[in-house]
Amino acid sequence: MRLAVNLGYMGLSSSQDMLALAAEADRLGYDSAWVAEAYGSDAVTFLSWIGARTEHIGLGSAVMQIPARTPAMTAMTAATLDHLSGGRFRLGLGVSGPQVSEGWHGVRFGKPLARTREYVEIVRRALARERVEYAGEHFTLPLPDGPGKALKLTIAPTQKHVPVYLAAVGPKNLELAGEIADGWLAIFFSPEHSGDILGSIATGRRAAGKGTEDDPMAGFDIVPTVPVVVTDDVEAGAQAVAAYSALYIGGMGSREKNFYNQLACRMGFEEEAARVQELFLAGQHRDAAAAVPVEFIDATALIGPPERIRSRVGRYAEAGVTTLGVSPFALTVEERLSTLRVMSELVPSHAEEVPTP
């Protein structure tokens, strides 16, 4: 199992702190560093900056928002980042949510699965330097009633195949990820609740004839972002993660459409998820955080002293995780750097040569 570091986005940490974490992960032999975007700092600019200041670590977008860019622009960006970094780029994509897609980007959220499928098809064709012609429900290239013509990318990425990852939560999204992507970017991943989730991905892999007959998941990268709190006080460590959990369960989306709330419900926390959402949407954010069950946090994070984390980290590899995304939760950058070092010691096999999708 490889190790990755999830840096999030500016606002949660300073740019200098994020760079320090990426540089230390690079020194420790972490496989990749992932950068997010919402409606603040963008992933692309940050990855360029980190790539210029590191040597070996992979550079992943977690995620580049599909409604924010045309598929051709995404292909141009991926090829440029891959070229500038010497073949280190991993393209993570996601449709975001209806509030960001429609409220920030002005793009209708309807039919996210069909849009994602078409988007990825166009990106792959462009990165393969094919002359792009596409007639879909959501994208048409070139437009049929104007002077545009089919074009191909004028530069080539360094990698022959730039890995594409999808952020997915629901069963159909997971099946699509297995069918068309090289990896899955997961959030709130619980090894004990992963059977049906990975089963959905495997269904997509089988439908596309990917993997092997015995193991459809072969060659597919499973990358959950896992909050890590190194502490002797497990309860206090859970409290440090509670606000983050409440934000997603309670506030990421509307009352009717919150994929993370639905995920918590599928894990058996229906009543608790409803309570967290009720409090969060009422503006009672502290109470919402307090209402997140410790059991949910402990199932989806690594919390405790190194010995406890060591005893629990193997659950991820046993569940099929191939790259463990470490999200260090601590007040200071020194503590977060220490968390990266602790995880490097607890997962010693991470630096071994492991094939990348």
UniProtKB/TrEMBL annotation:
Q: Please give the InterPro entries that the UniProt record associates with this protein.
A: F420-G6PD/mer (IPR050564), F420_OxRdatse_Rv3520c_pred (IPR019951), Luciferase-like_dom (IPR011251), Luciferase-like_sf (IPR036661)
Source superkingdom: Bacteria
Please report the stretch or stretches of sequence annotated as the Luciferase-like domain.
15-322
Q: List the protein's name.
A: LLM class F420-dependent oxidoreductase
Q: Which GO terms describe its molecular function?
A: oxidoreductase activity, acting on paired donors, with incorporation or reduction of molecular oxygen
Q: Which UniProt keywords apply?
A: Oxidoreductase
The gene coding this protein: hmd
Q: Which Gene3D superfamilies has this protein been placed in?
A: Luciferase-like domain (3.20.20.30)
